[in-house]
Amino acid sequence: MVVIYVYVILVYDINLDEKNGSRVLTKVYKICKKYLNHIQNSVFEGELLESQIFNLKSELDKYIRSTKDSVILFKSRNKRWLDKEFIGMIEEDKTSNFI
Fold it and tell me: pTM (2 decimals)?
């Protein structure tokens, strides 16, 4: 059996002006952090199995308010097809721990 990982970039936007916005933001951040590497504010990346992507989306669905918040998943079968360029203040490459 071949195990195939998918390279994922996840970006979210949580409406903090609405009721429970801060609580939703905290929950979404913790869920994303469980599966992916936090690279900047509301941006995460990492390599996941399809089953992990399914679980991630299922957990997020419990908190994302469909008329107020959004999550975008960019997926690629291989991270080498994506060039990453940093501009501005970068302390460290938090994605350097990928196998």
Answer: 0.81
